[in-house]
Amino acid sequence: RLGSRKEAAGAARSSVARRLEYIAQSARQRGILEENMTVTEDFSRVENTYQMEAEVCIVFSDFGKMQNVCNLLIEKLGTSVTISPPHFYHTPEAVDNLRRQVCVAAVGNTRRKAQEVCHLFGQSLGKPLLIREEETKEWGGHIDSHLPHSPDSLTLQERIQNATAHASCRVFAVFEIKGKGNRRTKLL
Q: Which family is this protein grouped under (predicted)?
């Protein structure tokens, strides 16, 4: 957030416009796309002055980039800009991607375990005959009972922990087992 209060309307607008351009340019230079930046402006008259306020909302998908941009803006713009604490969330696409990754990992784990069992008995694992996703669970971080419950009073690490998404998946798989002499049996 940034603002300016001046006796002349043009001076208030240009003061904010220069800083807005600097913020946008800094974000673009660090790979942030225009569609991930939203600017809202409010121009008003307060007593005998003109007040221009603006708010820039930037959506980051990389925590490190967010920290770099925020640190740069604080360093270069100082007290003329107020940076709010980040709000963490997961898009529906990111949650769907997490579900897929967890399921694929569960199938891979199942296959590796089946290979190890086959190796124990001197057999080799054949192709999968059936793979079924049985259960998927998702949960977020947690707030320990001794922590304050106001989001503003949490540390950055606590807020990251609370926003971290976790998922697990249970799969059922049937693989073909190739024995000696190329006999074939099924492993459940």
A: Belongs to the IRAK1BP1 family.
Half-sphere exposure of 40 (CA within 13 A, CB side): 4
CA–CA dist 69, 75 (Å, integer): 10
Helices 63-77 and 9-29, packing angle to 10 deg: 140
Q: Residue 27: how many CB atoms within 10 A of its CB? A: 22
Length in residues, the chain: 188
Low-confidence ranges of the chain (pLDDT < 50): 143-148, 188
Q: Where are the domains of the chain?
A: 2-80, 92-142+153-178
pLDDT computed for residue 162 by the predictor: 85
Domain 2-80: give its CATH code.
3.30.70
Alpha helices in the chain (DSSP H): 9-29, 63-77, 92-120, 156-163
Cβ–Cβ < 8 Å for 23, 56: yes
pTM equals: 0.65
